[in-house]
Write a structure and sequence with these properties.
Cofactor: [2Fe-2S] cluster
Largest sheet: 8 strands, antiparallel
InterPro entries: Cyt_c3_hydrogenase_gsu, Dihydroorotate_DH_ele_sf, Dihydroorotate_DH_Fe-S-bd, FAD-bd_FR_type, FNR_nucleotide-bd, OxRdtase_FAD/NAD-bd, PyrK_electron_transfer, Riboflavin_synthase-like_b-brl
Order of helices and strands: EEEHEEEEHEEHEHEEHEHEEEE
CATH topology of the largest domain: Rossmann fold
CATH architecture of the largest domain: 3-Layer(aba) Sandwich
Keywords: 2Fe-2S, Electron transport, FAD, Flavoprotein, Iron, Iron-sulfur, Metal-binding, Transport
Number of domains: 2
Bound molecules: flavin-adenine dinucleotide, FE2/S2 (inorganic) cluster
CATH class of the largest domain: Alpha Beta
Protein name: Dihydroorotate dehydrogenase electron transfer subunit
Helix content: 10-25%
Organism: Thermophilibacter gallinarum
Oligomer: single chain
CATH superfamily of the largest domain: Nucleotide-binding domain of ferredoxin-NADP reductase (FNR) module
Radius of gyration: 18 Å
Low-confidence stretches: none
Strand content: 25-35%
Shape: globular
Structural class: alpha/beta
């Protein structure tokens, strides 16, 4: 099936490993998909093992490596689909629909950015950091989780050249005790960002959007919704807009300008 670049791609699992409490990192080999994906887009994965489960699992990616032909996805095991995905082993095959949705936009003339990740929102945020590093935009990062054991990605962000990586945990077991918004508020007061990119729980993104609005900094958010089709056909993934209209998360998003969204 193809539709405007969207296609069903066969993939082979290259590795699937635990990287933190409840967090897995899968690398799939799918050369055409890896070459087609842009940071911020997502894939819709068929997880084999239960014929009654026909819905695919939508997942962002942290690295699409066109040279290696691989796509890296960090995902939380939360229900049946992601549990079965966590049980796939190297050499197993399935299919992924993609590229789905729109990429993170680059902001013309942006010189300094901040990326803010909450929980498993770190996956598309790492992809965003790769995009910024590749285009020579200096960036800082804020990564927040509930507790130290759930933390992933800070070393990757440092390796990509983040100026500062601020860690927050709800329980204070790593970095600063508190929320990503606490760390972002300090960074916004100290530094002159042109744009903030964020993905995480909706309440966190609403807070990030508010801080950015107050600071006069553009904010781009990656939204999540329950999804059936993943390409604009079923109408299950509506996001309410500030102007009273609705947009689809899968086709019009998942990336939106924070000012567009009705928080
Ligand atoms: C565009 C997009 C990108 C995503 N990227 C990632 C990613 O990179 N890493 C990652 O770990 N997860 C990501 N997710 C979330 C992931 O799709 C869900 O966790 C997954 O579909 C759950 O499937 P399941 O069968 O394991 O659990 P289910 O049994 O379907 O659900 C388990 C629990 O998770 C909730 N849930 C399921 N889907 C969603 C959703 N889309 N949004 C919010 N809550 C949900 C359910 O209400 C339920 O409480 C993304 C979702 C979207 C829409
Ligand atoms: S998931 Fe079907 S329209 Fe978005």
């Amino acid at each position: 099936m193809t539709s405007g670049g969207l296609a069903v791609h066969e993939f082979t699992v290259a590795l699937n490993e635990g990287v933190a409490d409840g967090l897995m990192r899968i690398v799939i080999s799918a050369p055409e998909l890896a070459a087609a994906l842009a940071p911020g887009q997502f894939v819709n994965i068929h997880v084999p093992g239960d014929a009654s489960q026909i819905l695919r699992v939508p997942l962002s990616f942290s690295h699409a490596d066109a040279a290696a032909g691989t796509v890296e996805i960090v995902y939380a095991v939360v229900g049946d689909g992601t549990r079965r995905l966590s049980e796939m082993t190297a050499g197993e095959t399935s299919t992924a629909v993609g590229p789905c949705g729109n990429p993170w936009p680059t902001v013309p003339a942006a010189r300094r950015a901040c990326v803010v990740a909450g929980g498993v929102g770190v996956t598309p945020v790492v992809a965003c950091a790769r995009m910024l590093a590749a285009s020579g935009v200096a960036f800082d990062a804020v990564v927040g989780t509930q507790t130290a054991g759930k933390l992933w990605g800070t070393d990757v962000l440092e390796g990509l050249g983040a100026g500062a990586v601020a860690v927050t945990t709800d329980d204070g077991s790593a970095g600063r005790r508190g929320f990503t918004t606490d760390a972002l508020a300090d960074l916004l007061a100290e530094k002159d960002y042109d744009v903030v990119y964020t993905c995480g729980p909706e309440v966190m993104m609403a807070g990030v959007a508010r801080l950015c609005r107050d600071a006069g900094v553009r904010c781009l958010v990656s939204m999540e919704r329950m999804m059936c089709c993943g390409f604009g056909a079923c109408g299950t993934c509506n996001v309410a807009m500030a102007d009273g209209t609705y947009k689809s998360c899968c086709k019009d998003g998942p990336v939106f300008d924070a000012e567009e969204v009705a928080w």
